[in-house]
Amino acid sequence: MTLQDDIMKTAEIIGKSNRVVIFTGAGISTESEIPDFRSPGGLWSKYDPDVYANYFLFLKNPSPFWTMHHEVVDMLLIAKPNPAHYSIFELEKMGKLKAIITQNVDMLHQRAGSGTVNDVPIYELHGAFGELYCLKCNKKYNHDEIKDLLTEKEKIVPYCECGGVIKPTTILFGEQLPSKILSGAINACNNCDCFLMIGSSLLVTPANQMPYFAKKKGAKIIFINKEDTFMNNIADFFLKGKVGEILPKIISYLK
Ligand code: NAD
Fold first, then answer.
1. Residue 255: band (very low, low, confident or very high) from pLDDT cuts 50, 70, 90
2. Atom 26, ligand 1: which residue's CA is nearest?
3. For position 1, what pLDDT does the model report?
4. pTM, 2 dp
5. Nearest CA-CA partner of 197 in 239, 165, 233, 169
6. Which of 50, 56, 130, 206 could potentially form a cystine with 143 if both were Cys, beta carbons 3.0 to 4.6 Å apart?
7. What is the topology classification, in CATH, of domain 1-33+81-124+178-255?
8. Catalytic residue among 69, 70, 126, 143, which?
C-alpha cells in the first residue's frame, strides 16, 4: 500500500468512527518550530535531562531547570499552531473527536481552537508551560506574572510571596503525573473506537500505554510519525511522513 492508500483508508476509518481519540507528542509541533527532545539538535542535546529536568534535583536546586525554562519559554510563546493542530480542530468541529491526549506542554492545541466547539477535553499528561504554582502554598500563577517576581538579586528562580519556589505544571523526570488527568485519559482510551497517535516516539511511560488501552477495547489504531516506533506492531495502519502534510489530506477526504 502506498501512503496515499493509507491516507484514504484512514479517512474511511475516521469517517465510520464517532469516538476518535487523538494522542500527540512532540512531533506534531516540530513544524511549529519547536524541536522535539530526542531528534539530533533537540533540546536534550543541549540540556542534559538528568541535570535540567529531574524533579528531585529541582527540589534541591531549581536554578538549572529555570535557566532552561527561561530559554525555552521564548520559543514556546512565539510558536504558532501548524496545519496538523488545525486539522485536529476540524475533527472536533465535525463532532468526531472525544478527547485529545497530549504529551506536549506547548499549549498549541488550545491555540488552534481545540476544546472550544464541542468541549473536547485536552488531557495534558505532562502539564503546560504557561500554568505555574507555588510548591509551598499552591498559589497559581500564569506565565506573565513570573517576570514580575524576578528581581535584580534573584534573576533566575521566581519565588512566591509566601517564600515558596514556583514551578510550572510541566512534569519533570521522577515526578508523578496528576492522577485526575491520567485517569481521564485512560478512560477516553477505554471508550474510543479510533485511536490516532501523532508524532511520538512512544518512549515515555506511562503515556505510551495509551495505545494499548485503546487496542484492548477493540479500537482501530493508527500511527502517523516520521520514523518507525517500537510499537508499530499494534497499529492497524502506520503512516510514515510529516504530520503537517498528512493530517490535512486525511481531513480533506472527510469533508
Ligand atoms: P519524542 O521527541 O520522543 O518523539 C517525537 C517523534 O516525532 C519522533 O519519533 C520523530 O521522528 C517524530 N516527528 C518529529 N517531527 C515530525 C513531523 N513533522 N511529522 C511526523 N513525525 C515527526 O517526543 P515524545 O514522544 O512526545 O516524547 C518526548 C517528551 O518530551 C514528551 O514527554 C513531551 O512532554 C516532551 N516534549 C514536548 C515538546 C512540546 O511541548 N512541543 C517538545 C519537546 C519535548
1. confident
2. 25
3. 83
4. 0.95
5. 239
6. 130
7. Rossmann fold (3.40.50)
8. 126
Mutate which of 22, 36, 230, 246 for ligand 1 pocket (most atoms within 8 A of beta carbon): 36
Kindly state the average pLDDT of the residues 114-143.
97
* 69 classed as catalytic: no
Residue bearing the CA closest to ligand 1, atom 7? 27
- Tell me, in angstroms, the distance from the centre of ligand 1 to residue 182's CA: 19
In the chain, where the domains are located: 1-33+81-124+178-255
C-alpha cell at 51: 541535570
pLDDT tens per residue, range 61-70:
999 999 999 9
Q: How far away, in angstroms, is 3 Cα from ligand 1 center?
A: 21
The pairing of strands 166-168 and 237-240 is unpaired
Residue 204: left if φ>0, alpha if ψ -120 to 50, beta else—which one? beta
168 Cα to the center of ligand 1, angstroms = 20
Grid-cell match 485519559, residue found? 185
- As given in the structure block, the three cell numbers for residue 26 are 512532540
Q: How many CB atoms lie within 10 A of CB 231?
A: 19
